[in-house]
Design brief:
The protein is an alpha/beta fold and 300 residues long. The chain has two domains: 2-208, Alpha-Beta Complex (Spore Coat Polysaccharide Biosynthesis Protein SpsA, Chain A); 212-293, no CATH class. 40% of the residues lie in helices and 16% in strands. The chain is built from twelve helices and ten strands. The chain has helices at 12-25, 41-53, 87-90, 111-114, 129-133, 136-141, 160-166, 170-179, 186-194, 215-229, 254-261, 269-293, and strands at residues 2-6, 31-36, 57-62, 96-100, 104-106, 123-127, 151-159, 199-201, 208-209, 235-237. The strands form two sheets. A seven-stranded mixed beta sheet has the order 3-2-1-4-7-6-8, with helices on both faces. A three-stranded mixed beta sheet has the order 5-10-9. α10 links the parallel β9 and β10. The chain is globular, with a radius of gyration of 20 Å. The model has no long low-confidence stretch (mean pLDDT 86).
């Protein structure tokens, strides 16, 4: 299986978690491609060791930082997220590749998904539940119809032959020029715009959003709703600014993620101290939610 990841040094720890979870279900003869511009040599060596320990090949490729000078980068979005669009050019001998965000956890085999017939499409992806259901005004703002499906870019199956035929770097500049003021999720918006109408839709279980949707959704999950989802998603995607490696995270599938995270201890002493305080923070937050729902007050 060909896997593509794109990160900078800030995401090495979660990338190790993602790859470790991936190798639980896919141990042999994978090729892990990394497109990067800001990863240290020591970090590359650590990733290489992790990949080769699981009978796979690690193939890092350094990108020119000046190649995408005009792309919008803000909040927690980085320039590296655009690199996946160059997979067809960078890997001319490959026919197919599966892009995976580093902030995900694999919970089952992806082989059947990887072998999906793309039926002439360039990409396959999973509809973005939040944007299609609750934030549809955004996709309408960038030119989509209400009924059109907008995909999340965290899991993308790419036909690289068709990528080579149908993508040019100038397409990014054109999309940025036309929609710059409306690009809330810049790389994801651009992927949806460039490949609109050429994306096969896959099941939600291959890119499951960990958001609760509401405080009532959070309570439902905590009080037993998690049992309905326990065996469902094969790919859990920790979307949003607060991730499971942050002390304040209290979203879904936290315990399962931390089983992997503890394999790679935090080396920053201050961050380690924050982790020691995280459960107090989570407990206070959950107590406040329960009090509000029962008519109590947060400050009691």
């Amino acid at each position: 299986m060909n896997i593509l990841v794109t990160v900078d040094s800030n995401y090495i720890r979660p990338l190790k978690v993602m790859l470790t979870s991936f190798f639980v279900y896919h141990r042999n003869e994978n090729r892990i491609y990394l497109l990067y511009s800001n990863v240290r040599d020591g970090e590359l060596a650590e990733l290489k060791e992790l990949v080769e320990k699981n009978n796979s090949r690690f193939l890092p490729v350094r990108m020119d930082e000046g190649q995408l000078a005009e792309v919008p980068v803000f909040r927690y979005f980085t320039k590296e997220m655009y690199y996946r669009l160059f997979a067809g050019v960078m890997f001319p001998s490959e026919k197919r590749i599966l892009y995976l965000d580093p902030d995900i956890m694999i919970r089952g085999s992806l082989i059947s998904m990887y072998e999906t017939d793309l039926e002439g499409n360039i990409l396959a992806g999973i509809p973005d539940y939040a944007i299609n259901r609750m934030l549809s005004a955004h996709k309408v703002a960038i030119g989509f119809k209400e009924e059109e499906q907008y995909i999340n870019s965290g899991v993308l199956l790419m036909d690289l032959d068709k990528m080579r035929e149908n993508f040019q770097a100038g397409y990014i500049s054109h999309a940025v020029e036309e929609w710059r003021e409306r690009l809330e999720y810049p790389d994801q918006d651009i992927i949806n715009l460039i490949f609109r109408g050429r994306i096969k839709l896959l099941e939600r279980k291959y890119n499951y959003n960990t958001g609760y949707g509401s405080e009532m959704g959070m309570l439902f999950y905590i009080l037993g709703g998690f049992l309905l989802e326990k065996n469902y998603p094969k790919v859990v995607h920790y979307m949003g600014a607060v991730k499971p490696w942050h002390p304040q995270y209290c979203g879904k599938f936290a315990v399962e993620y931390h089983r992997y995270l503890k394999i790679f201890p935090e080396t920053d002493p201050e961050k380690a101290r924050q982790w020691n305080r995280r459960y107090i923070t989570i407990g206070k937050h959950l107590l406040a939610v329960v009090k509000r729902k029962l008519g109590g007050r947060d400050d009691e």
